[in-house]
Amino acid sequence: MAAPVSTQTVDLAARFPGAVTAEARPGYAGFIVEKDKLVEVATAIRDEFGFDLLTTVTAVDYLPEDKMEVVYHAYKTTGGPGLVFRVQVPRADPIEVPSLIDVWPGVDLQEREAWDLMGIRFSGHPDLRRILMWEGYEGHPLRKDWQEPFYEEDVKPFKSRWPEGKHVMAEEKNPFRDNVKFLENFDPEKWIPENEEMLYSSLKRYTVQSEDGMSTDRIVINMGPQHPSTHGVFRAALTLEGETIVGLKPVVGYLHRNHEKIGERNTFIQNMPYTDRLDYFNSMSNNLGYAIAVEKLMKIPVAERAEYIRVIMVELSRIQNHFIFIGMLLNDLGAMYTPALYAFEERELILDIFEAVAGSRMMCNYLRFGGVVRDVPEDVMQKIKGLVFERLPAKTDEMDRLLSENEVLVARLKGVHVIDGETAIKYSVTGPVLRAAGVPYDIRRADPYSIYDRFEFDVAMRPNGDLFDNYIIRLDEIRQSLRILQQAVKQIPDGPINSQKPQYQVRVPAGEAYGRIESPKGELGYYVVSNGKPNPWRYHVRAPSFVNITCLEQMCIGTKIADFVALLGVLDIVMGELDR
Amino acid sequence: MYGKGILKGLSVTAKRFWNTYWDDAVWFWRRITKGEKRYFSEEGVKHRSSKNARGIFTVQYPEEQLIIPEEFRYVPFLVYDEGAEGKQEIRCTSCGICAKVCPPQCIWIVRSNDPNTGRPIPAPTEFYIDADICMNCGFCAEYCPFDAIIMDHDFDIASYERNIYNLETLLKPASYYKSIRPTNYATAEAERKAKEAAKAAKAAGAAAPSAPAATP
After folding, report:
1. Which of A516, A545, A570 is the last residue before a domain boundary?
2. ipTM score of complex
3. What's the whole-model pTM score?
4. Nearest-CA distance from B66 to chain A in Å?
5. A91: domain range?
6. Taking a contact as any Cβ pair under 8 Å apart, which residues of chain A between 25 and 84 contact chain B?
């Protein structure tokens, strides 16, 4: 079990005089690194200072100061607080920042995302293509001077809505087919899908060789975006030799809706219901991550009772997520419907509780800055107690009995290697997949947030990193969550449920904050920058599903295509959060 | 023994299968003695969504429906109090907080001014909600200072047209509010009465000659 290590203060500026300066802006922390020294400093951060897990790479557009900033958050897998370092570059194209892909390969997709949405070129990145938008697309949508086709105003609330009420429907202003900006000289009718060519050529680095004197053709198969096993509109371009996977590129962005741009137009509180729509299985966890980030910025305490309610809701959410995970994994493997429907039964009971306290089964919108929106009524509390003391422990054991020893399942899962711990850390993998690979890294223990330091529970860990461990660790985590819940419902005090007065527009002082939680799928982080105005200046979501697929190719090379379905299943991706 | 795990798993499904029919027999007896039905009845649905449910679990929508909890929220409506001779006293004062806090900005309100004094009239001239854009977050109802906009329970609103609700379709009486959200209604009424009592006490205090002047 990873106990938080007391970290001596990291003084990068003393280690690299001239190349690193300590952050001086109020509300900011960390270090500013000179662009040319970035790779050298990053290597030292990893090797000398021991920050082996780089979780977040994102960019911020400081338009008034005319500069762009790339922000990195690094953590230690042994626990403790993180290290923020950043690179500042002038805001004139081409904006170039050295890629850190050789130091932490896990930055791959995140750097591509920053290029796509912010227009920062990462020199040295081997495959810097757009990832969420398509290549006929003009501009970089997260830049502050970029405007969407249905643009009304920079920030909400829009002035037309009140008191004149002069609202014009978006589709009237901007008829269908006329709402897309294309690049100059771009004709959609004559479009040759260049991106596809680039995609396939990036797979072609595996040269065709004939072994044993027999020439074999490698073929490229597109699995998805419409494939029942990909959990949504996820596409994987696979190179196959026979049935063995020799190359893979994930293609995402089909469900992209520029969540972050919407978030920057919104006021702080308006973002809360939007976070529900990220990982739509766990809206409670999504709410918690965002609330923690903004509470850090506002420097406000959370009401005691509300902390307990938050933990109860988030852990219930984790249990139902893992039940669904098991059901859906078995669905993918061909055990059609019986395990899935058994899982859904328990999920329904948990969603009933969410509906009774929050008003909605899936889009909970339950947390507010400083607490929760409404108290848990006594009868619902009794229901929760009935579930966590009686029903769910019994049903977890039943699920265990139903599946864990099943010879067909064991033969299918045991020994199919997913990833080893070292590679997983390099590729920024977090969550159950990392813990199933023998790394006991759980943010609830490693860098405790909310009140998790008050509960007794173990970090679930399995050593082998194969498919079976990835399955069984979910059952372990359900049992640990139940332990937390049993303590929480016993200890929950009476009292107010919010430390703040309800207000529809909160005051958030200028600064930055990174709030992260252990969501059921991995590290869910919210990077929020405020400039003191009612709307966030930058709002970035570090989605576990998105970062976890960075190592998909590493996981899949050498396995059979039939196992790809299971491999994708254990990653537990949700497209709402992956594409944002 | 090879195959033991499969048999163990099959025993779980067999048990569920057995429980379904065993419970049917138990409920048959309850039907004779107490008149309670397992299917197509409120007590049956309640049982199937409780921790004691076993065997068959499904609720056969639309013949059966899950029991909607009070806090359930769907597209909001506007409350009016029934005055004398059926006059609709709209609670909304068109202050615009709901329009400002609405995350997808689907509420728009026309407020008009008194032609004589030039000051705003505390009632909406027009009030629209685009129900197709509404994300049912409940912020409007949560932050309304007058309890004038309430989240509805009516979720069967699918239609072929765009659902843009105007003042006429949005208004529902306070009695309806009371019927769908009894506890919320009671708390809101109690708060309102307490506020009015405080105001009356303050006014009485201000009227008394010895009391200090009320702060504006």
Report:
1. A516
2. 0.87
3. 0.88
4. 10
5. 12-123
6. none
